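quick one, three chains, predict together pls
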Amino acid sequence: MKEHEAEVRKKLGGISRRDFLRYCTVMAAGMGLPLGMGAKIAEAITNPKRPPVIWLSFQECTGCVESLLRSTHPTLEHLLLDLISLDYSETLSVAAGHQVEAAKQKSIQENKGKFILVVDGSVPTKEGGIYCKIGGKTALEILNETYPHAAAVIAMGSCSSWGGIPAAGPNPTGAKGITELVKGKPVVTIPGCPPNPYNLLSTVIHFLTLKKLPELDEKGRPTFAYSRVIHENCERRPHFDAGRFAIQYGDENHRKGYCLYKLGCKGPETFNNCSTLQFGDTGAGTWPVGAGHPCFGCSEKGVGFSTPLHTLARLHTVTPPSTYPRIHEEKGGGATVLGAAVVAGVAGAAIGAGATLAKRLGEHERDAEKKEEHPRKKEK
Amino acid sequence: MGGFKPLGGKIITKPFLVLAAFALFAGILIIKRFIFGIGAVSNMSDGYPWGIWIAYDVVVGTAFACGGYAMALLIYVFNKKTYYPLIRAAILASMFGYTLAGVSIFFDVGRYWQAYNLILPWYAQLNSVMFEVALCVTTYIMVLWIEFTPAFLERWNKEKVLKVLKKVLFAFIAIGVLLPTMHQSSLGLLIYIAGQKVSPLWQTDFIPLLFLISSITMGYAIVVFESIISSLGFRRPMETPLLSKLSAIIPKLILLYLVFRFGDLLWRGQLGAILRLDIKSFMFIIENILYIAPMVILFRPVNRERPRMLFIGAVLMLLAGAVYRFNAFLIGFDPGPGWHYFPSFSETMITLGIIALEVLLYLVVVKTLPVLPDVKHA
Amino acid sequence: MDMKRRDFLKGVAYGGLLLAADVPSALAARAPKALPPEAVGFLYDATLCIGCKACVAACKQYNNMPPEHSTTDNIYDNPLDLSGKTLNIIKLYTHGAGVEKDKENGFSYVKRQCMHCIDPSCVSACPVSALTKDPKTGIVSYNKDACIGCRYCQVACPYNIPKFEWDEPFPQIRKCQLCSHRLKEGKYAACCEFCPTGASLYGKVTDLQAEARRRLTLRPGDEYEFPVAHINSDQKSLRAVEQYYPYLYGEKDGGGTQILMLAGVPFDKLGMPKLSEVSDAARSEGLQHTIYKGMIAPVALLGGLLYAVYRNTKKDE
């Protein structure tokens, strides 16, 4: 038994079997998979043949890779050395230049139809895509020669998902997300700027374990992470429902931790799991809203980088506040000055006309009596 | 029996233009209502779903238009031919009164493009008072137009058609007496289902009877009123002898009405509600003073000989009937605390426009068609 | 008066006929309608309601109703009353300091929506059968294809429930239809399904009546297992019974309703009207059919009128 334990430990790069299984279970829970899945995940990622991954970076800031570097379960070295075989990454590969380009080609040839392609950064399309070149090839060329051979394509970050910052107006490079460029293959998008690394890791491990992609929404986002708006599970939600808002940065309400909606928080229209998963494993409350800044919708196309930071969000779901109408509310149109004036005018005119007519009839009677004639002849 | 003759004279006069302006303004507001919905022009609400368009244009308006009914009842059923000279003007006023009430309903109902559902048998709902009223009023509008057709035919000398029509006209006259008997009582019954929302001062099992008696009374009053106004306005001789005889009916009907009105309140033990001195009791007192005053005035034969007193009596009776109807449908109708209703500017202007159109059409028709009695014959 | 004696007598006879047609000789209301044996509804127990408004939100969602704003920030769905956009609402009664829940000198929630009367005034009033009561479930529902928008249902309803879309060029009447569209899917009223405490409890009306009467016999402070969401559900909430106001609203009011209400506060304080046990529909139909006697009276009257008018016009020619 001891011997077996040691063997497993060796395979797992030094972590204990117990820690490892716990990790797998956490992973399963994160994706909303049944508990028994933990064991299956363990089996998949201890497989001696580590799945090859090719990571292409185009018009990007390396934030996505940086965020991945900061994940703690698994740690980066564990991920790279034990879980996957990262055959190409501009940031993380030890080799450089022609050497690494050749390694990429080799890996593509060897793992046709088996490797996972991860892309971060947008692809410039204007003027033949000359705004981003690597090893003499444009980003577009690199993408087009790589993705047809991939088993799965994952767009990491908002830039590769839908354009992100490079595609923000006026978009000088004609930047596009790879979803618009990859044809005939589903693209998993993990939008965010940067996205939560666990949304990527969970997707990769789901694929390794079940040999298929997780359930995706119509924008290619895994539903385990992107099916609910941030607002729904926000820690500040009770303040929203109670109508308590921070009005200015640093004001009394802001310091009390009230809802940031009126500061322009885009939580109500941004689909992401920030409010449940928080960000980057650095401790409780560590995500923009937790730190007192409104969400700016980095992962949502049409929100992040395109609507002003402090405009009020559109509400997807409208819920009641905790105030109540009284049993009898005042309703219906009361008298307005104009309305009343018209009615009074009509009444006045009618009384006036009636009185005038009655008076004329009185005169008429007197005339008739005076002349003592048949009233009918007199009129003519 | 005397004949009828068009008045002649200029059609486009100063009153004509004023009335046309009112009608036109109302027309513009009605277009606004069709584009933006009823809420855009009216103050009606979910608590007061019926405003002055129903309370005035329909409930009061058709009662004002009961002249034709009341006169037909007198002339053709009770065989008092002496009143024949008054019939055509009465029917004309009824025709416009009812037709324009029909027009008002058309823009008052929300889903007017489906209004024809009322005549589709598979949608018919025989327990509905509204169904009865709607069908009855619609039919009566058609009957009134047929009853008035001889005026058109005489004007354009269609003797043959006139002869044929006269043969069957009696049937339409009979139906023309039956239908208002039905729907004028049912109009009162309309508000009956509102139950406790209507003040006990007006909510009673006798409401159909009260509505019926008062509509007939108002019918005679409007004939007197119109005759005097026509005589003054068109500088024609007064029809005083005829009117004084006709107006003798009014106080008797009022007395009958008041016996039922107060007998019912006494029987239900609601007389105390009169002295509560809230807006409802205040309006009740006004309403019944308006009933008692013309009764007192017109009971005296001397007063009935004097056009002035006849006029005052008729006007008071019309006001009495109008206030009674307003009270039953609006003042006495209370959907509960918090709800308010007062007609909006646009809403009132639309109703005024409808009245203006009614008067305008009346003026045009009496000038061009044989409606008023030929003075030489009279 | 140059009236002949004969004419006068005839006149009296016709006049008598006219009046006879109108005087409500027997003011008997139409026989009361019975509750369909399989009728469904819900029991709203205000003592269990926590005012979370999950029912309001669920109602909007499952009936595709738009939010309604009553404050200027337009953030919340916060209607002040039922309307063309709101079919279900939680209202608050407070009195005095308003501290103690379910006390007359305290506060209470109340849920308002269509009561699904056993003998509905709106159904009796509607001239075109746009409002109908399902013979099996008893649900009162609306057919916009029949409706002419006359709003007589609004005038007739003692609870002011049917609402009209005043600001629409092509308006409809809106009212709770007890999620009859969800019933077809095998589900039930959303307000009950999403009620976390069992304050809105869906079920067969007869079962609900029995449940409500049982609750009224409980002593305050006793522990009782309150079913949650559906009367037949396994989910129960064990809690102490509050002091009920000893009245089951909807059992007989206005001829009875399929929505039943229990509360700690008298119902008139919660805005519920005091209605007689005979429904307005039964009274109105009774009176109407007394007058018309199944159209026999008008036809008889017409016969008399035809004869009289024919004779009286004949003489002139």
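Chain C touches chain A through 26 residues (CB under 8 Å).
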